[in-house]
Structures are given as C-alpha cells and as structure tokens.
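Internal ticket #5521
Category: modeling
Description: The requester needs a full-assembly model to guide mutagenesis choices. All entity lines are attached below as received. Residue total reported by intake: 615.
Assigned to: D.W.
Attached entities:
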Amino acid sequence: MTRRNVNKSVVIGTIGSDAHIIGGWVLKHAYEDAGFKVAFLGAMVSHQEFINAAIEVDADAILVSSSYGMGLIDCEGMRDKCIEAGLGDIILYVGGTIAAPLELERNWPEVERRFREMGFNRAFKNTCTAKESVTTLKADLGVE
Amino acid sequence: MRLFLLIDFGSTYTKITAVDLDDETVLGCAQSETTIDTDIMFGLNKALHQLRLSCGADPDEARGIYACSSAAGGLKLAAIGLTPSLTLEAASRAALGAGAKVISARGFELDQEAVADIESKKCDIVLLCGGTDGGNRDVILHNAKALAQSGLSCPILVAGNSAVSGALRGILEAAGKQVYVTKNVLPALDTLDTEPAQSLIREIFIRHIVKAKGLEKARDFVGSEIVPTPKASLLAASLLADGTASEPGIGSLLVVEIGGATINVHSVADVEPVTPLTVVRGLPESRLKRTVEGDLGIRWNAHTIYELAGQQKLADLLLSCAPDAPGGADFKAYTDMLCANVGHTPTGELEYNMDVTLGKCAAGIAVERHAGALSREYGANGEIFVQHGKNLLNVKNVIGTGGIFKYGLRPEQILKAAASSDANPWSLKPRSPRFFLDSGYILYGIGLLSGDYPEAALRMAKKYLRPATVE
C-alpha cells in the first residue's frame, strides 16, 4: 500500500453508546485552531460512521473519544474495519475515560497495551490536554 | 411402494439408503468401497448389488435417485481475504455454507510462498475476496496478479470490492484463468452477504468439479445434480429445525458430525445476544451456520485430540463415559495406532470406550469452537458482558451423526460434550437440549430429499432419529 499525502484533516467523535460530547467538542476547537480540517461527528458514533467520514474527508487520523469506561469494548475491531475500507494506514487515537476508572488508575500500562494490540497508534488518559493531543498528532504526521 | 435411492459417495465408502416414500420407511442400506480412482460405477454397482441382496430394492424400479459426494477430497476451496476477522472470515463462511472444505485460508497480501502453498493443495476453487465495496483495492488487485502468475488451473471466484471487479476479471482472464465474478461477501463493514458467492460455488461444482472428479457417470446414473455431502447435511438440519408450512420442525438444533478426519458442526438457531444488555462483537452471525474442524476427527487426527487434551483429561473422560471401565487405558499408544491404521475397528470393550472418549473430547472442542463465548469487562458503571460468536444457550436439540453413533458403545455419552458444562461456563453451548442419535445414518438422505419431498423427509427424520438419554 502506498502512503497517502498528509492534508491536516481529522475525524472526531465519541464512540459507542456514549453520549458525552464535551471531550470531542474541546478537541474539535483545539484542532481547528491548529489549522486542521475537522469532521466532528458528535456523540454515539459507530465504527462505520467514523470510517465513512474519514473516507469522505480523506482524513489523516480518527480521534476517538470515550468517557464512560467502555472504550476497550467499543474500539475492538476498528483497525481491521479501517483496513477493509481502504484506510489501512490511517492514524487511530483514543482518549478519555477509556476504561473503568480503577483500571485507568492502577493498570494504565495494560490498558495502553490492549489498545495498541487492537491497532490503535496511541491511547491517552483523561488527564491529557487537547493541546498535547494536537502536538502529538502533528509530530506523528510530521507537519507543523 | 415408491422406492427412492439416496447415495453418499464418501471418501472411503459409497453408501446407499433405500427408502419407500409411501410408507415413509427405510427399506435397507448397503455400502461398498468408493472407486473414484478407477471408475466410480464399480463401487456403486457393488453397493447396489448388496442393497438388492439385503432388502430386494431394485434400482430399475426406483422412482428417483439422489446423491451427494465428498469423494476425491470433497469440494476443496482456498479462501483469500484481507483481514482475518472480516473478509477472510466472510469468505470462509461463504465456502463452508456451500458445503466446501476450506483447505487454505489466507489474509493480506499473498507472497510467492503462499501462492506455492495454495498450488500444492490442489484445490477445486479459489475464492478471492478483500475490501468492502469502494474500500481497499490494493490488496485484492495484488492477490489477483499473484494468482494470475500462478500455475493454478481451477476456477477462480471473485467476491470482493466491487469497485475493482472488472479490473480483477481482466487481470485473471488475461492470464487464461477461468473467472467468475459475483457480489462482495462483505459489501459494507456491518453487512455480510454470502449467498451470491455460495450459489456460484454450487454452480461451479455442478459445471466443472463433478466432471473433474470423475463423477459424471454417477451423475448420469442418478439423473440429477450431485451436491457436496456437507450441503446435504445443512439442508437436512435446516428442514428439521424449521419444518414446512404443513409439517412442524423440531426447533433450534445443533448437529455434530464426527468423522475420521474432521468434525462438522451445524447449527440452526436465531441469532440473539445472551441478554439484551450483552455487548455483541464480531461479524454478524447467521441463523444457519456450519463449521468444520480439520484438525479433529477420531482416526486421521486422533493424535491432535491426544495433544489437545492429554492423557489425564482423556482418562478422566473415559471414567465419566464408562465408570466400570478397566484401568490402564494408554491414549498415546491408542491414538498413535489409530493414526497409523485409520481403518481400525475397535476390538474389545476398552477400545470401544476409548473411541467414545476420543469422540466426546473432540466433540466438546468442536462445539466450543462453533459456539460463541462470553467475556467480562469493566466499565464506569461496573461489569459488562461481551459476546463473541453465536449464542447457542437456548438451542433445543443436539443430534449426533457419523459412524461412531452407529457402531459405538454408549455413543450418547459423546453428545454430553456438546452441551454446556461447569468446566467452561463462558462457552455459549446449549444449556439443556434434548439429545438424538442418527443411528441409522439417515441425515444426509433427509437433506437429499428435502428439495422435492420435504414433508415426507421431515416425517422420516422425526421417526428415525433416536432420542437419547444422557446422564
């Protein structure tokens, strides 16, 4: 597969049955301020909706927000779906309260490992700021 | 009397069952060795002769003859997809549902070694999938080019990303391959569509493979198309569960077919989560499902059962099957001997019990692989149950078929392994089913009759499947 050109475009949404919208909303503004084109899908977004939007806007990354502790369950299988949909090299980030709060506190390395194993490039704790997320993605994409 | 002959050209034996559809009775059975390497008709005529001797059934008086075949290796298919969990899984399911044997399943980009491996397996069909419609096209194009450059001469069935169907056909036809193109097995990420590929697999079987396998004379004798044997079993399972408009079926069911080299498991059951709150993951399941365990089987693959279970577990199982069995059962020696003598018939009570133990162990593993499983995760609000695979907890009936259910000692013991147990409470195997034995080996015949005589076939199935009590 050939690597596509970076065009500073991202898809943002809250995954699964999660109605918490504020994390994604903060990210939307931070990325727009940093010069990214943002497809903001709001809350309760399915894998298919994330992937469809990423195809339409030719996104560099899908940024998955999750705030109800079910991120591990909701994100399972997403990388394989991206590959089938022709988005094999898209960057996948996940952040928020992405596992049970106690797990995040005590077993973060294990939570992070499981997301990596599922094909996510990075997982962020709920203490990460939107700005840190932007800086990290810019570095991963090699853009300013 | 309305005599019908039902023939199963097996890999080893050609079996015939004669039935009278007026009385809905089995008149008799006969078998002889399958002679596909020379002339399929030699073995068939011998079996017909024996049938005449055993029950007086005269083939010339038959009102109809139906046949299925798994001779010459059955319908051997190589499935190619992109990711193992999506298009490769969809391709494998399409193949299994059409009665094929998946002899190679490969995802991502094929390299030379992979192509050489597929070539060496001498498959009858290659099923090329990959990418959703409009999705990834690079991998399936790469794989089509790899197949085009290969020495494969069998038909290639393309059921992948429709955006490149034309290009794929062009690449393969330019290399002189026989190409069939149909709809994508996974048109969208949440939509499985295996039926178009399955009907084309059946068509290719009828058009090319019957001839290639030397089954033409048999087809001419039979006078109708021969179907792959697993397809006949699937048709039987479907009819038996769902019934017809005028004859009720027996409800959801699981069929465990134990063979020497493989174990087939069929289920007919509504697709439902364990509870409304259970989170379901993975490709959508289908109401009619077939899986084949190519590494199990109580002759050719007896050593795998030993390797998976070990002496201690098998010895414990033996005790549960036959509490009064004499001690000293050496499963390593027995399974080694079985692999070296695949035609072995048990001698003495201990060997009969060991056979049933191997069958029980293998059936347990095969049904566990067929059924889904639950796992526990934790969210912000506590425990969450996640379901992967098909929920069979409420399946009403379990049916055992295959040689061991005919000759085995207390074969009903095997079926217990198909039901849920405390040993693996997370497996979604049937909770409290009724058990039946296909002790007359009639199930394939029910499938063969299901197209033209569904009511009579169903009534015969209900009459001849023997209820079994499993302690």
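Resolution: model delivered.
Comment from assignee: The mean pLDDT of chain A is 93.
Ticket closed.
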